[in-house]
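TA notes. Do not distribute before section.
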Amino acid sequence: MNFTFRRKRISGILTVLPAREQSFVDDMKNFNFPEARSLKLKEVMGYDKHRIVEPSVCVSDLVVFALKHLFEKELLLPDEFDALILVTQSPDYFMPPTSNVIQGRLNLKKDLFCVDINQGCAGFVIGLIQAFLLLEQESIRKVLVVNADVLSRKTSPKDRNSYPLIGDGASITVVERDTVDSVIHANLKMDGTRNNVLMIPAGGFRRPSSPETACLEDVGDNNLRAKDHLHMDGSAVFNFVQVEVPALIADLLQHTGSSIEQVDYFFCHQPNRFMLQKLADKMRIPHAKMPSNVVENFGNSSGVTIPTAIAFNLGDRLIQEKFKVCFAGFGVGLTWGAMLLDLGRVNFNSLIDYA
């Protein structure tokens, strides 16, 4: 599905990551696996350290902290945005929506469109698409796209296939109308027939949590996890990314009459360094154009990885300069989407710690 938006822009990005940092060497102590092989995994996949929340921290805590920071710095006023889109797979509750919880905790205006979207790895692109659609309404002047997840709380520390790469975090992306005739293109695809490749099998109404679903099981090669934990078929995800994502980005570039050479940066969701570098090689994109340094420094925080990559790799440059960028998100669902736009001259682009 193709989308075209005119006169829309991103005017600010703030990423909030937990101050608590855990190293892969610390993670190794929980693995029933030879140390030498664990260190080889660290080298190949690009694991080093990741940011994870304390056990009691929820999505709304990260988001409220981020918004208070913007309000205190007067980078955003509480009454100047008309919609809050929260994209998360780890809500505070089944009900009410966590976006409403955030609205209530900050005592935001009642004339505010709040909505939760249950998406993950492609959630940044999906959130932006929804925001641009809302900006077609005259009554909506500015939209906050909020990506946030605390999936470390649903990942087994004894599962070396998932736990070392998982990180937590939140991002606030401010979207508004542009004063120039800018054009943004996007495309999006979904394949629910492969929904079991990335999932948490228990905890919903289909299979409620119970003492049985909380029991750790050896799922192969001495990896231990429960049905309540995140399950990822790593080989299936890798093959999905290598097959589907290059075609998606190629289609977007062809549709817009653009080339890889004309794009300054490809900011992709970051499952791990190995997967992104293989993706870049397959598409013949220089590694410098597709940063892959988020997981080794912060962990894979699902839809927050793209804003994290932007803040970490561009920082204040994005305030003064403008770049042609391609966003690409891919994963749980299975869902994959890409977006091509001019990004820059924003009001802020920063990364702060939640403590």
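Switch to the second chain here.
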Amino acid sequence: MKFELDAVLIEERCRSSALAMSVVSAVAPEVEVRYVPDGREAARPLVGVRDPFGAGKRRMVVMERRAPFLMGCPAGSSEFACCGYLVLLIASNCPMDCSYCFLQEYIADNPGLQVYANYAAAFDELDRLGRSAPGRSFRVGTGELADSLAFDTLTGISRDLVEYFARRENLLLELKTKTDEIGNLLTADPRGRTLVSWTLSPTRVYESSEHRTASPASRIEAARRVLEAGYKVGFHLDPMIAYPEADHDYGELIDNLFDVVPPQRISFVSMGGLRMTPALRALARRRFPDDPMLAAGEEVLGRDGRMRSFTPLRMRLFASIRARIQRRAPEILLYLCMESASAYERVFGTMPATPAALGTRLAGS
């Protein structure tokens, strides 16, 4: 996939960085390249445009990160059956534009597509993490606030990450994406320490809601190729949307996946329902007024302040797809994201593992 940019803005202190030079040499000649004193200001919303968030996606800001790179997953909470996922903040925002994306609200104040030129400093934080618990495995991903691979042909960051994690026995890298941009991955040897995961949706959701992403078939084919190249693979059915034909469409998606990617070689599948704060829902419907998925199903406000599909509808969809997966691939590790322990018990018939236990299992998958 190729994504269009209007401008590349490079922080002066990053002018001679390897990342800046890589981007400048690879970006299309018609894209404006400009140097700015402070990337934080350059990432602010543009004034006087109809859609500041959408405009931010077309401005890449190469800048220095002033805060730590490693953090707990923002979705983590004592209310939910969590997976112990750790987030490595290499970038913020992405060029794709999914109607349901939480970033529309989460980074509304700095929507410029930030890429951090000093990302090598993250390796010191990861070294400390690995030394802190030598008997424990950690799963660390870059796909929470940005797609892990969307601009990898410009930045080449994935190669450095894969090579670093290949030398770490208790750290597993997860690259999460909705693209088929895997060229750099095919030139590196992961040595079993990098997992590439794809968010998958049925064609109906992809066509209505996942703008400028690779098609579901392209994502699945990309997964097959990286699997053959020595990577682990996983899949996120998230967000699952409880529209009237969802059972059939998600079931068909699972069949298509297993027909291409051998299920016994899939490390995990996660499931999560569509959830939005009232403010995010209003913003998404304003930006995408014609998307029927944003009005699908009955929605109820939960204790965490997010709107979700009416619980019986959501649980029925989860249970249906769980049964479909387990009929064809009972060995796959399957779990719920951003759902309560009681919801997990309703779907699986058992209480969930602790975040540490599930996280360790996923990191060793």
